[in-house]
Specification:
ten-stranded mixed β-sheet; 44% helix; Rossmann fold; 10 strands; alpha/beta
């Protein structure tokens, strides 16, 4: 009986290994399951892939400290219109791995490349919100536009947020130092304060506050790693994307709210639109940073119009 049991275990193990080998789809660098991609430096990226598989592809890169959940309104809308929509959780965020190192824009961009490579995607429209806009720009800076059809930057941190000698209109580094300190002191409270205040402009007089949006922001943020989201503050604030924007040679759309208290339009959207040759610039009057939720119907339609433009 013991020998029979051992034989059964060995047979089952062999079968499982065989099935695993056939279930994993890989190229030379990446392994893929139904919902994760493992990068060449062994980071697992969670992703969602919605809509018809033969549809025109749109990828979404999310903001800090959120996850791909923040794009669900745009993804569902475009999937219903026949587009294949794909979004991954950035390394250190959401359901992806929380590596100690590599929480920077170069790795973020290479992770986006890993998603495109593993899923064998071409003629893609890249959409990036806030930090995700920087991720998209750096992807093009490092990997070019051979797989890219169009680019949309929404409330993006590009071209450079922090004040420097060559960026005199930027934001003082002390502000970002304060965010880092708050993240270490009590990041749970930090996320609640951001969501209930400037992110959605709920701190404006007469604002209609949504506890649901506040709780969703907090939930997504707390899913990320403490070290990862801390490091990401430097990534989104101090990375200079000006050389990357200069390499965008496909149709580009820049969308920004003029009441963005997190990434002010005058240091971001306005400048990015000028640096990207031929970019279309749409300003949302009185819109906050989190306009993908507060102005989702308008954003959905603007993205659809952009995708349909020939």
């Amino acid at each position: 009986m013991k020998n029979l049991t051992n034989l059964f275990k060995a047979t089952v193990l062999t079968s499982v290994l065989a099935l695993s080998a056939t279930a994993v789809q890989a190229d030379t660098n990446y392994q893929r399951t139904a919902s994760t991609i493992t990068t060449s430096d062994n980071v697992q990226l969670y992703y969602r892939d919605w809509g018809p598989k033969d549809g025109e592809v749109v990828t979404f890169s999310h903001g800090w400290p959120l996850s791909s959940d923040s794009w669900e309104s745009q993804m569902q809308f475009l999937a219903d219109k026949g587009y294949r929509v794909i979004a991954h959780d950035r390394r250190g965020h959401g359901r992806s791995s929380q590596p100690w190192e590599g929480n920077d824009m170069d790795h973020y961009a290479d992770d986006l490349a890993a998603v495109l490579d593993a899923l064998k995607l071409d003629k893609v429209t890249l959409v990036g919100f806030s930090t995700g806009g920087g991720e998209v720009a750096r992807y093009i800076g490092r990997h070019g536009t051979k797989r890219v059809n169009k680019v949309a930057l929404v409330s993006a941190v590009t071209p450079l947020m922090v004040k420097t000698e060559t960026n005199p209109n930027g934001i003082e580094k002390a502000l970002f130092d304060g965010i880092r300190k708050a993240s270490n002191d009590n990041r749970s409270q930090l996320y609640l304060d951001i969501a209930s205040g400037p992110f959605y402009s709920f701190n404006r007089e007469g604002a209609k506050v949504s506890q649901g949006l506040i709780q969703s922001f907090w939930r997504q943020g707390m899913m990320g790693g403490a070290k990862n989201t801390y490091d990401s503050i430097a990534a989104f604030s101090a990375t200079d994307f000006r050389p990357d924007l200069a390499k965008i040679d496909v149709p580009a759309l820049v969308i920004h709210g003029d009441d963005d208290q997190v990434v002010p339009i005058e240091v971001s959207g306005e400048v990015s639109a000028k640096l990207i040759k031929g970019a279309k610039f749409i300003i949302y009057k009185d819109a906050p940073h989190g306009l993908a939720d507060t102005h989702k119907d308008r954003l959905n339609q603007d993205l659809l119009n952009f995708l349909q433009e020939k």
